[in-house]
Amino acid sequence: MRRIVQSFEESKGMAMLKYVSRRIAISIIILVLISATVFIIFNYLPFDPARLSCGKHCTPEIIAGNRHRLGLDVNWWVQWWRFLEGIFAGRNYGEGAALIHCGAPAFGYSFTQHECVTTLLGQALPVTVSLAIGAFIMWLVLGVTLGVISARFRNTWIDRLSTVFVLVGTSLPTFISGLLLLLFIVLKFNLISPLDLGTWHSPLTDPWGWFSSYFWPWLSLALIYAATYTRFTRSNVIETSSEDFIRTARAKGVSERKVLWKHTLRPALAPILTIAGLDFAGLLGGAIITEQIFQLPGLGRLTLQAVLQDYDLPIIVATTTLAAAFVVIANLVVDLAYALLDPRIRIS
Amino acid sequence: MSDPVLKVQNYTVEFWVDGTWYPAAVDMNFEVEAGKVLAIVGESGSGKSTTAMGVMSLLATNARTSGSVKIKGTEVLGADNATLRKFRGKEVAYIFQEPMSALNPVYTIGFQIVETLRTHFDIGPTEARLRAIELIGMVEIPNPEGSFDKFPHQLSGGQRQRAMIAQSLACDPAMLIADEPTTALDVTVQAEILDLMRGLKTRLNSAILLITHDMGVVADMADDILVMKDGHTVEHGTADQIFNKPQHPYTKELLGAVPKLGSTKAREFPYDVTAKPAPVIKLENVTVEYPKRGRIPAFTAVKEFNLEIYPGEIVGLVGESGSGKTTVGRAAIGLIPIKEGSINIVGNDISKASQKELKGIRRHTGIVFQDPASSLNPRLPIGESIGEPIFLAGLAKGEELDRKVEDLLNSVELPRSYRNRYPHELSGGQRQRVGIARALALTPDLLIADEPTSALDVSVQARFLELLQDLQSKLNFACLFISHDLAVVDILSHRIAVMQNGRLVESGDRDAILKRPQDPYTQRLIAAVPVPNPAEQALRRATRLAAK
Hints:
- The complex is a heterodimer.
- In chain A, about 75% of the residues lie in helices and about 5% in strands.
- By secondary structure, chain A is an all-alpha fold.
- In chain A, strand 1 and strand 2 (about 100) form a beta hairpin.
- The radius of gyration of chain A is 25 Å and the shape is globular.
- The relative contact order of chain A is 0.12.
- Among the domains of chain B are: about 100-170, no CATH class; about 260-365 and about 445-520, P-loop containing nucleotide triphosphate hydrolases (Rossmann fold, 3-Layer(aba) Sandwich), CATH 3.40.50.300; about 375-445, no CATH class.
- In chain B, about 45% of the residues are buried.
- Chain B is built from 22 helices and 20 strands.
- Helices cover about 40% and strands about 25% of the residues of chain B.
- By secondary structure, chain B is an alpha/beta fold.
- Chain B has a 6-stranded mixed β-sheet, sandwiched between helices. Chain B has a 6-stranded mixed β-sheet with strand order 16-17-18-13-19-20, sandwiched between helices.
- The interface of A and B includes residues 343 and 348 of A.
């Protein structure tokens, strides 16, 4: 009997491994397809980067030369293949004396910024990751706590107060709440020097500088999300608290505090985390508005600049694919976390 | 004399609904002594569960209670939460009806038992774990140490209820309140759980308050009985008094409505037994397999199943949950494809029929589902639900259809005006009548009834079974009646087929099966059914335990 149980446990571990590797394989295929889609879309857009990069005094010869230099003189699938190749093998741009090498993983070369895209991403990513992680923690703590509290005291003034917060939070767009925070708190009380806005402080060497420069951007992002999560947590907790097992917990003599935080919250939390993971992944792709307001040189600003100012195709392709990659990875992580939180979900 | 464990006096529970107080239990007086079992019986809505929950103030916030509830002489009604918590789980423990929803799905059963222990006793985690494993062993869950780390969904229904009991017993409570503890379980499992509770009662000398609607369970367990109806105490006495000399008409009615195994007289076969006519349906070597889905391997639900049903007879198909009886019912009318064998309905082989042919064949069949609430479209008035099969078959429309629908409503004894009502406006029994009317809309040769009464109260069930019998003798359709309740099958059937683990164990004439079962499984199944007669049940129990 014991051996049967044991081999069952082993086969469960194996199945988990098989599941994870299959999911990773599928994720890679999805990413490859997404990058192809991006190339197709940009191929059919009525813009010509070669023409745009040429400036005022242009001859057909210069345009053709630019086109060749940018690698745009071939079909989109060849361009796409070179892009994929570059990720693994690195890539050379230009010829002769003007040859530039971008080491693997190369995501392209920006001719407007004269940098390998990988380098640009390397500069922007820590900013965006800092912004996303802090905002994520802040909104989860704020939203779940407020949600549980307003569920616990539902239909009292506390609940109504949180409803007001939710209404304000969800109806104020970031470009208003962010600007208000910046103008009337940060700059007014000189919490961050205007000159210091957007300066990168590494959390490893200057944790306080990092924290204080990101606190307000976090807050402005977290407010919006926290409002939604308050509502969501509240309704989930109320629903779970009418389950039979909550009555069982009370009948056992468990204190109200434990009934709420232990028996109600954990089953109620699983669906919240699913959505939180995806929201987090979305943020990693770049919070364009918040980054713009607080002058943070993250992925969002990088993309925005590439789209609005220069039509810098390599950057757009790289950031789009990267954002998609975050969503795909977050999906995988969320599914695994869900199974941990709620053992009823069997992975199959 | 010492105080009774539980003493309830002038106890009233009311609910605040839409601006008025609705009484759910009125002026209750009862007491339970150590080592005794008081059963509160009544139909759904009679207030029996409310009474039990109110004892430890576990009711919803819109409830108010008055009167007095004393546990070992201490007043607990109106006590503050801190005081109540000292009694909950420690002195008064509950066992709830549906252990799947009554145990927290995200914690292991071991964790939940340990939690109970550590709430009331000052003990460390290791000691609590050992005690919990001991408890799990005591309620006879196999491999207690391994089961400690199991989640509720990984256990069978019976094991879950055992885990629930283990949790309730963690602190050796003086009072055990069991709210329909076996309703969700199969009869053989029910018998085991009841044995377990009885054993624990003698060992711990606890008092038990048993809430149930099953008179068989009452006869098996109770020393005293309290009958409730619409929140009022109808009758209160010893088990002997209630069963053998019931005074109140309602108690008599309740006892009369309970189907008793082997009490119905012989039914004549509607056909000549020596020269059997052509069967309405013939299942030959039927095997049904649910195909492999991802990691879940293929599952053979029914294996080499043989059954014939002749015109005008009712065949009862019994078996425990998971035995494959519902699968047989669905496969019989082509709702589930079969892997091997053949199914013949009035001469048409449906195992090879195309979708279009199946549609034609289905006109010969009707099906009544288990849960009338979920098998009727909630957005359609019931008249449309009933008329739909007729309309789809192209038999009638417009006024003619309306007339047919009214006739059908008449035949199931529902007022014609009900045709414009929606399912939620009907009671459970009425909804099931609609289900039957719909199934009979095309005057089928074969009716499949899949546990049609399992969601109904006994008195409603009795009326429903009567109606079904009337209709059957009038319309003379053949019927496959699927049920887990042997007593119900006993009332209706000419023949009985018994299933276990997807196989046909035994089939034959009703009396042959019920009175002289050949297969050991059938014998066990019949022995496990509690009969609503304390003396007889005690005898049956003794024989069953001796046979073990």
